[in-house]
Amino acid sequence: MPEVTVLPTPKDLEGFDLSGSTAVVIDVLRATSSMAQALSSGCERIIPAKSEEEALALKKNFPEALLCGERRGRKISGFDLGNSPAEYVSSSVKGKVLIMTTSNGTRTIAAAREKGAVEIFMCSFLNLGKTAAVLSQRLLAAERQVPSRKPSLAVICSGSHGEFSLEDFACAGALIERMTGQEGLIKPELTLTESAVEAVSLYRRYNGDIMRILDDSQHGRYLRSIGFGHDLLFCSKVDSLKIVPCLSEAGIVAFQ
Ligand code: MLT
């Protein structure tokens, strides 16, 4: 029976062994929302960078790529795009390679890779249902391949500057609830750790009111205070996207 755990912040990765595990990174506001939107709009792939310096170095190797990302929520000076998902429309990104660096999400993806996760997916409320379906299939496949080994899924919340974020933890709970309650799909029987049970409980306390979750979140309030309130509405559109970003050798692409 696959085990699912939730890491409330990337700090929880310290001392955590991800080797052999499937990981899913959540950064609702806004990296994983922007990634899902960019891939849905037809970008070729997204190369995550841990820093502005790394992004600029990558740009030298991929001069046609768009530089994307934020620091303190605002577009990095000299970059082509910031981190509002609404910027990632097909007229801007279709067919393009993106180099993306953000305060939390891209760093969490790098940390998951460094900790040896065998596959890394990205989830937000936008692609919640599709991510739940893909992860359930991957866990069932892993169980069939090696019945003796218990597959495990680590749901990693990006948080905000190392601290807990309500919206990521609630999204983790929503994802797990979808995986256990899927209609029509063969759903894996899951063993939930205490953090996973708590994430589902938190999500259920909001009765599906995603906008209230984002309005209650500290980062959501900060984004609104600097003029990005429209991003909260955009990031609240549950199941509006049907693709799942996953990390490949070439960068982040839509899982096939
Ligand atoms: C991120 O996406 O890494 C951060 O949460 C910051 C943001 O986009 O505002």
From TrEMBL:
SUPFAM superfamilies in the record: ComB-like (SSF142823)
Gene3D superfamilies membership: ComB-like
EC numbers, comma separated: 3.1.3.71
Highest taxon in the source lineage: Bacteria
One Pfam family, short name: 2-ph_phosp
Cofactor(s) listed: Mg(2+)
Signal peptide: none
GO MF entry, a single one: magnesium ion binding
Keywords: Hydrolase, Magnesium
Reactions performed catalytically: (2R)-O-phospho-3-sulfolactate + H2O = (2R)-3-sulfolactate + phosphate
UniProt similarity note: Belongs to the ComB family.
The protein's name in its UniProt record: Probable 2-phosphosulfolactate phosphatase
Native source species: Candidatus Fermentithermobacillus carboniphilus
Gene, per the UniProt record: comB
